[in-house]
Amino acid sequence: MRQRTQLINAIRGHLTEYGWVAPRGTAHMTLLAEMLEDEEMASSLPAEALPMFRVMVDLLAELDKRVATLDREIARRAKEDEAARRLMTIPGIGPIAATAIVPLAPPVETFAKSRDFAAWLGLAPRQHSTGGKQRLGSISKMGERTIRRLLIIGGSAVVRQAFRNGAPAGSWLERMLARKPRMLVSVALANKMARMVWALLTRNEDYRAPAVVTA
């Protein structure tokens, strides 16, 4: 994925040098390939630069095929693994995160409480005292980095969708988005997701969304 992102950034950067402003987002790369094949559009680029861009776009297409193949394989494995399947019932956890958590995390019996699991992942906020009062600070970022990163990415996706479409009325997410920055909410949600992971693996249950009570 990193190689693919670097290639996309390189294509966009070189096009900018020649006056083309390529839209952001990987979805627009297919359109860009079509534009490079269009003689009228391609004529605005120097003749010596056009072959380079076409090679880069072909490389990107090949990388896309490899990524798609890997995605299908990961999805297949996630469906076949009971623990991974349970984890995918949690909003924000997809096949990649689910199949990473199962082998990378210790047995859930290692942790007495869900908070202990979140702390092991480095998602529990630090506590410090100010004027005799206990306050919560930033997360510790200790523990298993891969799982922590995947949970934060998943939490960010849920928060982004809620910000665009609206969170369920009266929900924890709605209250948090009303008073906290989105990045902070994403990390807080990742903490909650870690606790859900512990609970589901401990009880062998699927995720059930909490009931929202409205006035």
Automatic annotation (TrEMBL):
<dbReference type="GO" id="GO:0003677">
    <property type="term" value="F:DNA binding"/>
</dbReference>
<dbReference type="InterPro" id="IPR003346">
    <property type="entry name" value="Transposase_20"/>
</dbReference>
<dbReference type="InterPro" id="IPR047650">
    <property type="entry name" value="Transpos_IS110"/>
</dbReference>
<protein>
    <submittedName>
        <fullName>Transposase</fullName>
    </submittedName>
</protein>
<feature type="domain" description="Transposase IS116/IS110/IS902 C-terminal">
    <location>
        <begin position="84"/>
        <end position="160"/>
    </location>
</feature>
<dbReference type="GO" id="GO:0006313">
    <property type="term" value="P:DNA transposition"/>
</dbReference>
<dbReference type="Pfam" id="PF02371">
    <property type="entry name" value="Transposase_20"/>
</dbReference>
<dbReference type="GO" id="GO:0004803">
    <property type="term" value="F:transposase activity"/>
</dbReference>
